[in-house]
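Run log, item B.
One chain of 614 residues. Sequence copied directly from the ordering sheet:
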Amino acid sequence: MTIPSFEPVQYQKLPAPKSPLLLKNGQIFYGKVNQIFPNQTAEIQIGGHRLLAKLEMPLKAGDSHFFQVTSINPQMELKIVSGPIRKESANIQQLMESLKLPKSREMQQVLSYFIKNQLPISKEQLLLSENWLKNLPDGFSGKEALQVLGKLSDLKIPFTEETFKALLFGSKTTGIAHALEQFAQMVQNNGQVSPQVKSNLLNVLQSIAQPFEAETAGLLVARSVHTLLERPEQGAKQQEALNLLKEANILPKEATLRNWLNHLRLSSGNGTAGSFLQLIKQDQAAGENVRQFFQWIENEPSLSEQQKSEILQFMKSYDDTTKIEGLVQRLHVFLLKAYSEQTINRPFVHENAISPKEHLLSLLKSELSYQPETELRNIAKILVSSKNQAINMMMAESEAMLLDKLNGQGFQKAIWHVLKSLGLSYEAALNRNTAAPDLIQPLKPLLVALVQDNSAPMELKTGAEALLARLNGMQLLSGEMDHQHQIIMQIPMQFLGKQVEATVQWNGRMKKDGKIDSDYARILFYLNMEALNETVIDMQVQNRIVTIYVYNDKDGLEVLSEPLKKSLKAALEEKNYHLSGLMFKPFEKNESGPFIKEKSHDHKTLKRGVDIRI
C-alpha cells in the first residue's frame, strides 16, 4: 500500500512555485544555460523558471553553473561562480573554495539541499544556515532543519534565527502539550520571577490544560442545587451539596438546609434568568415586565417545552398578582430546577450566547465579579483545591459525567478556548482594536513580555522562546498561495483525565470573493492519544462528498467504529455533507520514503480502552 502524501508538516515537499522568481543582489543559485544571445546575454533556467540575464563572460549553451546576482536594475547581471558542473560533490567543494565558505559537514548539507531543490541563497544566508544546523535545539534532525530552510526561501520569509526557529517548532506535529507542561513546572518552581508574572502565566497555562473547567464547575453547582431541591429531607447528600455551595462562595457560611433558598441572590446580567426575575421584582403593578417574562420564557432555547409549559401554567394560575415577592420566589425555584436539570443533561449547550449554567449562576449570585465563564472557572479552582473528600468525590463524578456526554459542541468549544488562550489571534485582535482586557490574558503576549524582560531568569526565557516559536510557526505556515489556503494548528487537549495532542492541517481553496470554499477541502488530523497512540485522519471533501481515511497501527478499529458510522453520517448530513466512505489503514512505507513517526513525550502509563468518541 502507498500512503497518500500526508507526511507531517516538516517532511512535506515544497509546493511547485507559481509566482515569478524574485532574485536579490548577492544571491547564489544553480542554473542551466539554455540559449546564448548577442551582447553576452543568455536564457538561464532555474528549476521551472526561466530568465534573461547579462553574463560577465561567454558561456556554452547546455552547461550548468553556479551563478551569483551582481545587479538587478536596469537588467539582471550574473557572475559565474563555478565552471561547468559535471559532478555535484566536486562542484560543492569548488563553490565552497570560490566563496571562501567553511568546509564543514553542515555547509555541505545546506549546499546540497539548495542545489537539489534549485533554490537561490546568499553567502550570508549560507553562513547563517550552517550555524543554525550546528546548534539545533534538542529533538530536531538535520533533515527537518533543511526542510525549514527551504520553506524560508520558498515562502519568502525573512531569513532570521527567529523565523527559522518559528518554522522549526511550528512544523512539529507532537510535543506541544509536553512543552506547555514542562514550562508550567519551570514557572511554578522558579523563585526569581515576580509573583504577578507567575500568577498570570500559571492561570493561562491551567486554563489551556483544563478547557472544561467552567463546564465542570457548572455541573457541580447544578448537581448540588438539584440535590437540595429534589430531596428536602435532611441527609448526608443534602449536607454535602450545601457544603459545596458554601465552599464555592455561592452561599454564606450561616446557610442551612432549611433556609438556603433565602440566601440566594439574583444577578442583573442582561438576558439572564436572574435579570428577568429582577425586573418582575421591581414591577409592583405586575404589568409590562411580567409580559416580557412570558415572552422570554416562550422563546428561551435552553428550556424544554415541558419546562416552559410548567412555568407558564403556574404563572397563569397564580391568583394574587399583587404579591410580587411570592411570585418571584416560586418562579425562582421553578427556574433553579429547570436550569440545574438542563446543565446536568446538556452541559455543552451554548445557545444565544447564554448557556444553561450561566442562567443558573445568575439565579444564585448577585453581581458577578467577572464574566460568567470566568466566574465558573474561579469556582472550579476553589473546588479543585478543596480538602473536603466529599467534594473531591463529587468533582471526580462530574468529570466522568462530562466525559460521557462529550460531543461535537463540547469539542468545538474546547478547541476555541485553547486557541484563544494560546493567543494565536492576538495580533489580529490588536489590529482590529478588539483585544478587550480579560481576567486571564492569552499566553502569547505574556511570553513576548517575558522574553523581552532583561531581568527574567534565563531558564524561563529559553522556555518562553521555544513556546513562542511554536506559536509563531503555526501562523507563518498558515496562509494563502494563489487561490489555495492552508491553516495549521497545534492543539494540546488535556481534559477530564485524558490527554489528546492534535495537529490540524487544513487545505482548501478560496472563492473569487476571498471566502473559503466549503465544498472542497482536505483536512489532516495528526493525533497522539493515550490509548490509540499515534493516529492520522485524512478527510477529503470534493463537492461536499466526504471520504475519510484513518491511519493507525492497532487492530480491530474498523469493527469498533461500526456503531459510530451512523451518527457520523447523520452529523455530516446536518451540515449538508455526504459520507462516501470511512476506511482504516495501518502506517506503511511508500516509494518516496517512510512515514516518519515522532516519539511521544508522554511519560504517563497508558490506560486500557478508547480515548474519545468523535
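Observations after the first pass:
- The chain has three domains: 1-17+465-614, 23-155, 213-408.
- The CA atoms of residues 298 and 309 lie 9 Å apart.
Flagged for discussion on Thursday.
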